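Action item from last meeting closed. Structure (369 res):
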């Protein structure tokens, strides 16, 4: 039997429940005991301390409470979550590329399914929870969700965002990578490279990095992009990535020594992922963003020897020029059918399915006329 007491509309499980527990976070970093679950520096950046501590310190929405769910026999799985407006969700921000269960070294498929079942029990008698930004092929995701389903919860899957990637064949160099890109992109790179301005690269902590970060912020402010929801997040993440050797920040300068394009990548697990890129709209005709991307990718291939390029979240048109594979990040809504909010959620899902079915029938009927 799970012992529970009501507190603020949520249940706090006592020590008698060894299968799962919620741990509210009050600081701006993960506790030391989380290191068992976190990826080591140089492995998966988005499952490591540098990422999560930066998110906790500077990308938590007002009114949200970070919560950890520790699940499974011997604490097999750690789930970083958010509690907001009475609902639970995965700890996903506008900057998140990938979210998934953080696994203890001993966690196998059976342990993961068991952990998912315990997590599902924690969600009994609560409003629907939402997990997002998940890779369907990531370790632990399928087994964990199987366990949640076995706990009696309804799972409704939804598409979250596209993720464009360019796997590199063993031994593939810059020339081979570029040859596989669209001819229009290759022509742009050839035309603009001869007139490209000065390029600077930043990777190590210190005064020079601060120069690069300031240049990035200047370019970002002059770009076409809307204001950041958390303006200090990118500089903080660059510093955190540089501290573990994962940062690759590049800046392009014009003839007057003004920054006109900037972007930063993180390198981990042999792969490179671009977090943000921008160019000064006033310099758009010179294609500084395209030129800078080419320089950065060439360095990532020839100097870092990466095995894949990851273009982050979203289906921006330019990504299809640089990458040929689209992957889908998905989410699931976890619903207790016996909770009143669960009834509403399941009714909403049923109505949505009905509307899509009707639209499909009407489209088929119209096409046949």
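Sequence:
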């Amino acid at each position: 039997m799970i012992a529970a007491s009501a507190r603020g509309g949520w249940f706090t499980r006592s020590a008698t429940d060894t299968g799962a527990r919620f741990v509210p976070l009050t600081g701006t970093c993960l506790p030391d005991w989380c290191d068992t679950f976190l990826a080591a520096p140089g492995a998966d950046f988005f499952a490591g301390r540098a990422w999560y501590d930066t998110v906790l310190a500077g990308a938590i929405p007002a009114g949200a409470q970070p919560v950890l769910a520790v699940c499974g026999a011997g604490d097999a799985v750690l789930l970083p979550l958010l509690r907001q407006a009475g609902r639970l969700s995965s700890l996903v921000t506008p900057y998140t590329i990938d979210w998934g269960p953080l696994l203890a070294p001993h966690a196998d498929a059976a342990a993961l399914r068991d952990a998912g079942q315990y997590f599902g029990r924690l969600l009994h008698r609560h409003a629907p929870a939402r997990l997002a930004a998940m890779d369907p092929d990531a370790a632990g995701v399928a087994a964990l969700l199987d366990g949640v389903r076995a706990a009696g919860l309804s799972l409704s899957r939804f598409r979250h965002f596209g993720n464009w990637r360019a796997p590199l064949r063993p031994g593939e160099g810059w020339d081979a990578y570029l040859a596989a890109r669209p001819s229009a992109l290759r022509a742009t790179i050839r035309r603009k490279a001869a007139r490209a301005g000065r390029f600077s690269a930043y990777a190590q902590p210190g005064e020079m990095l601060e120069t690069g970060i300031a240049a990035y912020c200047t370019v970002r402010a002059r770009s076409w992009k809307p204001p950041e929801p958390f303006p200090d997040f990118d500089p903080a993440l660059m510093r955190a990535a540089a501290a573990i050797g994962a940062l690759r920040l590049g800046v392009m300068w014009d003839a007057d020594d003004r920054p006109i394009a900037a972007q930063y990548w993180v390198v981990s697990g042999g792969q490179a992922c671009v977090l943000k890129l921008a160019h000064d709209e006033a310099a758009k005709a010179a294609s500084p963003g395209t030129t800078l991307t080419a320089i950065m990718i060439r360095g990532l291939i020839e100097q870092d020897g990466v095995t894949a390029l990851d273009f982050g979240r979203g289906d921006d048109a330019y990504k299809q020029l640089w990458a040929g594979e689209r992957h889908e990040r998905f989410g699931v809504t976890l619903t207790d059918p016996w909770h009143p909010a669960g009834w509403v959620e399941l009714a909403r899902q049923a109505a949505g399915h009905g509307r899509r079915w009707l639209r499909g029938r009407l489209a088929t009927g119209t096409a046949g006329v």
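Note appended to the action item: Confidence is low (pLDDT under 50) at residues 1-16.
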